Structure formats: C-alpha cells, structure tokens
C-alpha cells in the first residue's frame, strides 16, 4: 500500500466516525434541531467547535505560509503581522457578546436577520439574508477550493483522481452528516474536528523542534534573528499598518461573526444568554493562543525547509523574498511560499508518514467545519428568512422537513458549481480577489444593524434600503480604486468599516422623520 492510499484510508476512517456521530445526534431531529439545535447546545462544546469554524482550511495552510514573506506580493502579511488582526478579532468578540448576543436572546431569534424585519420591514429582512447567503456561499466555496486543490495537487492527482470527483465526494461527505441533524450535529462534529486540527498543529511543532534539535526558546531566538517574528507594521500607507489591521479585525469580527448566521446560529443554540457569553469569550481567548501557535509553526516550517535544502530566490545576486522552495533538476526553484509550504513538506516525503497522516487529518478537520457550518447556515437562512418556513401554518412538520432537505441539497449543488468555477479560473490571486469581493457584502449588514441599534428612525420608502445597500459597496469600490490609483495609501481590512459607514449614511439620508416606538 503506497503512501497516498494509506492517507486516503485514514480519511475514510475519519469520515465514517463523523457519520456515526451524525446518526446518534440526528435521531428524533426536527427543523428546530437543524436550525438552532433546540437551544440545548453546551456552551463549552460550541466554544471549542467554533475554533475550527473560525480558522478554516485557509488559516491551517495559509497563515503559516505567510511568515517567511518579507516583501510586497500577493501574500499580504509577513512575519507575525497577522497577529494584529487576531488582536482586533479578540476585541470584536467582546463587542458581539456585549451588544448583539443580548439582542438576539431578548428577541428569541432563529435567524438573526429576523431582527431587521422587526426593526425595519420585510425588505430589510430579506436583503440581510440575501447578502449573507451570497457572502457565505462565495467565501465558503473559495476556502473549500483552496483545500480541495491542495488535496488534489499533493495527493489525489498522482492516483489519477479528477478534480471534479474530489470536490464532489468531499461535498457529499458534508451533506451526508449534516442532512438530518444540522446544528445539532455540527456542534458535536466541529468539536471533534477542532480537536484533530489542534493535535495536528501541536504534533507538527513538536516534530520539527525535535528534528532541528531546538527548544522552544532557541527556535524563537532563531526566528527573531531571521526577522520572522515582527508583529507590527509601522507604515501608515501599508495595507497591514497595525492600527488599520486591529481596527479592521474588530469590525470583521462584528460583521463576520456577530452579523453572520453561520457563526451566530451556534451561539444562539446555547440554552441561555449567560452561557452563550461564556462561549463567546472563552472562544475569543483560545483563538489568541491558537493563532500564535500557527504563526510559530509557520516560522518552524521555513527553518525546517531551509535546513533540508530550500532557499529564497535570487536575481543578480539579490535575494527575492517572495520566492521560496526547493530546486529542481534544472536548478530552478519551485515556489512553495504561502499556501503550498505546509502541504509540500507534509505530503512530498519531507515528513515521516505519521506526521503526514496527522497533517491530512488536520487539513480535513479544518475543511469540514468551514463547509458544514456554511451549508447548514445558508439552508437555515433561505428557509427561515426567504421561505418563512417557521411561520408557514399550511405545511405539516414533515412537509417542512422535506422542503428544507431539498434546499440543503440545492445549496450543495451550488457549492459544487462555485468550486468548479474557481478551478476554471485556476488563479490563486483570483480566489483572494473573490474573497475580498465577498467581504464587501458584509458592509451593508454592518450599516443596517448599526442604524437599527443606534438610531430610532424608521425607513418607510419602498426599495430605499435595497438602493442604499447596493450603492454602498459600489461607492466603496470606487473610493478604493481612486485611492489606490492616485495616492500612496492602501486601503486594507478597514474597507468593511468604510462600506458600513457609507451604508449608515445612506440610510440616514432616506430615513423617515418619525421615531420607532419600540423594537
């Protein structure tokens, strides 16, 4: 049995374990089990499982790969600069716990976009849901594509398996274990998957330290000497200027966690507000350590690769620090910087088989929480917000469940089509661009919720909310283009703040002068 077949066998065993969990958790399940787990989820299970959902496969393979980058390129961060974003995330989770969670529990929501319907009108409710579905579908499938592509290039291509079959099988795996139980199932499976992801992280760190015969402190000292550990970018014109990155991290968390049905449906599946806050803050604190560990691993991966013959590219004797890899027979460096670094070392014979197995299980564990949560959340949002399934008195529970399953299957097909579109584009920079475009759609959600929470004004003109939420991202894009073209300043993750602010201003301009009496 060759190494590729061995790794696939472990993937199969892992998936069988997920199906067993799904069988037991989905027994006697109904639509409320699928949407919010009957509000019986344990807060500590949700907190731990959300680590895997937040990190995703992109974090698992991308964040370590950025550490060795030192110059401008498609890899935005270098060294430990990404950690400034993590600090912003941490602050943002406290804001979500203090403002948004109490609101959702007070209104006893199944879909968080129901708030927009009660606060404004049906138009706002449906717009919020549509923006979320578009955002999550594009963002989740972009992340899925990156991980599927890694599995394809480094493992399955050599076995003659076509890309489309890899993508289809992985999506069917996710569909099978979420089809019945939904949130009730993924709260448990995400906990298992997060465990394997962290085991993989720790095992790789321990192995590399042992192989290089270094202690933790000695390794960190070497990373410092190579300038791999710099945290703060002081250039205010840079996309990763530390204050912009922290600010962007705060608002990304508010929008992409607090205003995101996928993330919040797990939080509101906890039995009460107090425990839901415990979940959020425990999860936030844990992410500080986990992300730092991934960055440390990234530095170790570069040290290991250099020790085993890898090097940076050179032109006319000068080092080019956005090209890194091993030389082929012709003496040319095959660039593995970024997303390819961790997979290349793990799956191309540089690590022993046991570490390769742990890596592949960790990678699959990073993929599934991102996919299962997204698929369940877009299904929930479509059924609750657009089809009004919970309010439909003309359908029996059995008919509602059948309709929900049809929607779930339909979104699985849509996810597959989007992954194949990313494959047809076959350009890593295009994927980053598409993910950035998906980020534009959270700005209108940020502005809508902010206007609803911090003002008392109504929006009564028909289609005025639709007009504002379409124009705000367009104006944001134009501002970004003009600033980039005519100045040295680079708008980074603060783009979502600008987008939300323009939405808020637009809503203010079309507001009705009468106040809302009570939400």
UniProtKB/TrEMBL annotation:
The chain crosses the membrane at residues 6-24, 44-63, 83-105, 126-155, 161-179, 191-210, 241-259, 280-304, 349-368, 407-425, 431-451, 463-483, 489-510. It holds the Pfam family SSF. Keywords: Cell membrane, Ion transport, Membrane, Sodium, Sodium transport, Transmembrane, Transmembrane helix, Transport. It comes from the Bacteria. Coiled coil: none annotated. PROSITE patterns: NA_SOLUT_SYMP_3. It is a multi-pass membrane protein. The keyword ATP-binding does not apply. It is found in: Cell membrane. Its main location: membrane. Belongs to the sodium:solute symporter (SSF) (TC 2.A.21) family. This is Sodium:solute symporter. It comes from Chryseobacterium ginsengisoli. The lineage of its organism: Bacteria, Pseudomonadati, Bacteroidota, Flavobacteriia, Flavobacteriales.
């Amino acid at each position: 049995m060759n190494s590729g077949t061995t790794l696939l066998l472990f993937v199969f065993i892992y998936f069988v374990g997920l199906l067993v969990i799904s069988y037991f958790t989905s027994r006697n399940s109904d639509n409320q089990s699928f949407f919010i787990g009957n509000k019986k989820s344990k807060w500590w299970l949700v907190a731990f499982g959300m680590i895997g959902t937040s990190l995703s496969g992109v974090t698992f393979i991308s964040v370590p790969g950025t550490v060795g980058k030192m110059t401008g390129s498609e890899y935005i961060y270098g060294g430990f600069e990404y950690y400034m974003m993590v600090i912003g995330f941490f602050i943002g989770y406290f804001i979500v716990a203090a403002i948004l969670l109490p609101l959702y529990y007070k209104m006893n929501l199944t879909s968080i976009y129901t708030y927009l319907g009660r606060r404004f009108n049906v138009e706002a409710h449906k717009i919020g849901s549509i923006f979320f579905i578009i955002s999550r579908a594009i963002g989740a499938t972009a992340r899925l594509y990156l991980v599927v592509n890694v599995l394809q290039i480094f493992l399955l291509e050599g076995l003659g398996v076509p890309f489309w079959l890899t993508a289809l099988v992985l999506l069917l795996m996710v569909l099978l274990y979420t089809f019945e139980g939904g949130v009730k199932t993924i709260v448990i499976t995400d906990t298992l998957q997060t465990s394997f992801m962290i085991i993989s992280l720790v095992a790789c760190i321990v192995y590399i330290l042992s192989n290089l015969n270094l202690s933790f402190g000695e390794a960190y000292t070497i990373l410092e000497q190579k300038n791999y550990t710099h945290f703060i970018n002081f250039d205010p014109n840079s996309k990763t200027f530390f204050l912009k990155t922290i600010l962007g991290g705060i608002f990304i968390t508010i929008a992409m966690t607090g205003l995101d049905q996928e993330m919040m449906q797990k939080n509101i599946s906890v039995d009460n507000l107090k425990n839901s806050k415990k979940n959020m803050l425990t999860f936030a604190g844990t992410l500080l350590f986990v992300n730092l560990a991934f960055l440390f691993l990234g530095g170790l991966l570069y040290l290991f690769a250099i020790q085993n013959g890898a090097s940076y590219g050179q032109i006319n004797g000068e080092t080019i620090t956005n090209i890194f890899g091993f030389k082929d027979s012709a003496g040319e460096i095959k660039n593995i910087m970024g997303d390819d670094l961790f997979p290349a070392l793990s799956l191309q014979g540089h690590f022993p088989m046991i570490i390769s197995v742990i890596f592949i299980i960790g990678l699959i564990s990073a993929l599934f929480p991102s996919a299962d949560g997204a698929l369940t959340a877009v299904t929930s949002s479509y059924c609750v917000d657009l089809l009004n399934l919970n309010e439909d008195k003309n359908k029996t529970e059995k008919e509602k469940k059948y309709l929900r399953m049809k929607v779930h299957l339909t979104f699985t097909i849509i996810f597959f089509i989007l992954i194949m579109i990313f494959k047809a584009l076959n350009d890593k920079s295009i994927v980053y661009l598409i993910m950035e475009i998906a980020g534009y759609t959270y700005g209108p959600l940020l502005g809508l919720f902010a206007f609803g929470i911090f003002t008392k004004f109504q929006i009564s003109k028909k289609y005025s909310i639709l007009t504002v939420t379409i124009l705000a991202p367009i104006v944001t894009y134009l501002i970004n283009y003009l600033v980039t073209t005519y100045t040295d300043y680079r708008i980074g993750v603060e783009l979502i703040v600008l987008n939300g602010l323009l939405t808020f201003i637009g809503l203010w301009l079309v507001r009705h002068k009468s106040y809302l009496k009570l939400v």
